[in-house]
Amino acid sequence: MSDVYTIENLDLTELFTEVQAVDVHQLKSERSQFLNVFEGKMSVSEMQFTIQLALPSHFPLKKPMYFLKNRQEAGFIPHIEPDGFICYSHDEGVLLDRNNPKGIIHESFQRAKRTLEEGVLKLNSEDFLVEFEALWSRQEGICRVDAIITPEERFKKILVFHDEKRRKSILLDRINESIVQYLNNLYSSRVLDEFKESKGIYIPLRKSSSLRPPAFWETWDIKDYRHLINNNITASTKKRLKQYLKKKLIQKGDEEYIVLGIPILNEQRALIGLRLSDFRAEQGKGKHFPFLHPLRKKQAAFELSPLDIKRHDKGYLLNRTQGHSRISDKRVTVVGLGSLGSRICFELAQAGIGRFTLVDKDSLDIDNVYRHELGISDVYFKGTERYYHFPKTEAMKRAMKNKFPFIEVDYETSDILEILHEEPQLLLDSDLVIIALGSPTEELYLNEMIRQMEWTIPIIFTWLDPLGLGGHALSTKKGTKGCFQCLFSRPDAPRRLIANQASFAAPGQNFRKSLAGCQSVFTPYGSIDALETAVMATRLALRVLTGEEKDNPLMSWKGDPSELLRQGYHLSKRYEFSSDKLFDTRFLYKNENCLICQTGETP
């Protein structure tokens, strides 16, 4: 692979006419440091464009870049940036054959040409909608603000909080306890007390509207925006906007914010904004405060700033993480908030679950910090006269709300056995119960009792094998075959309990260890083992909640047995199964004579 690239060894005359090498400083872009720049003519739909081909300093590890020398030459078309850059391919996931730089150039040339051609022929005009927010954000003088606004199809008033000293603003369409907590966490401030408050409006444009943002070289004034709004809103929106403008007067020192909901593809809306500030009388006009709102009539001079809106609304953020909108209202009860249960809570929240009930009777112990989702700051809280241990439930709620303020978290710092008898409704109100106690005796009892309840509640039991050997998750539901009891009994002797048949460790071995006597007894496993099992259990939970999983599978993953064998322990026969076989046999654990799920009797 040569480090010297020329017109000849790249065969650029096959691509361009009038091609020549030019000084890299002739390229007016700061996207990269460049090795070479070549300039030539590209034929697109009977038109000739002057194109600059730039090879980044790390080419061919980095893709070549193509620029329109005159960015206005093709008009305002999608995928052409303010510096003339032709966005023909995204960097994420791109694979380049670094041993074939000529091939990279020729393939990328065709893609850049196709992008330009589709724009010139208006074949990709819909992309203006898809890229609306991105194109809007390229304007000169753009101001960046945060927003928690749910794009709806109705006109509404909004609030704006602004830290003038640090030049940070956030726009809100509602305010409640969760949002206040979110703001305080986001800015490390008491926002309602420390930020200046302003007002604004949200205006949804019609779904049928055919829109494009201002070209990079254009500057829209209030007349342009007034025309855009009035020609692209429904009759009901126009009526509500007119009512608002009739009452609204601009006073000295006011700032007015306008957010537009732009209809894009797949029933989504982009958000763009305007800030109107520094209102003042125009010389010679004889008008004084108060003024009419500029969307009604321009009576004053003012500064108009386009706003690039960084969205914080839950629906938008979940769409970026493949969050399931259909599970956002589901309630999951997690019983047991140890290293496994705590991680499952966070994984489920990140997947889009919106409501939780947490159950655990214990406090976080410093012994478990290195394998728990909580940390050192969750061990104590400071009272007026002494330090107290944080209950895991309360600490988990605090940690989860700090990261995901829009979720709802209830908790019970109680023994699940007491709850089962005294407050069973707590479980009945759930869409799914996940049990991660690590206590098979209690879990077998819960399996039996929950199946006897009036309502059909899906349950997932999940647990770890010792010493990194693996982890398991089993789903079960009343009225279906396959339950936790099946793992602890055989068809020929259903009343006799045996060791868990899912385990990858041979039965009859004691893995419990102690570092400081009986009070510190624990089962050895690592944080990564808990995380792996939590991910597996979360995937199963999502499949159950969305209805994709109709049966009751036993899911298992296998770890490295080296440490277990080094310590003289033994593997079970099941460990010999391949990962494929573990999956293929996920329903074969069911005991045809199980006293719980087959006959409903009590053992």
Please give a structural write-up.
There is one protein chain. By secondary structure, the protein is an alpha/beta fold. The protein folds into three domains: 12-125, no CATH class; 130-312, no CATH class; 320-584, NAD(P)-binding Rossmann-like Domain (Rossmann fold). The protein has 16 helices and 24 strands. It has helices at 101-120, 127-130, 132-136, 177-187, 191-194, 222-230, 235-247, 314-319, 339-351, 392-403, 416-422, 425-428, 440-451, 527-545, 562-566, 579-584; strands at 17-22, 34-44, 47-56, 65-68, 143-148, 156-163, 168-172, 196-204, 249-250, 256-263, 269-280, 291-292, 301-311, 331-335, 355-359, 380-382, 387-389, 408-412, 432-435, 459-464, 470-476, 513-514, 521-522, 554-558. It has a seven-stranded mixed β-barrel with strand order 5-7-6-8-10-11-13. The chain has a seven-stranded mixed sheet with strand order 18-15-14-19-20-21-24. Strand 16 and strand 17 (387-389) form a beta hairpin. Helix 9 (339-351) crosses helix 14 (527-545). The termini are far apart. The model is unreliable at 514-522 (pLDDT under 50).
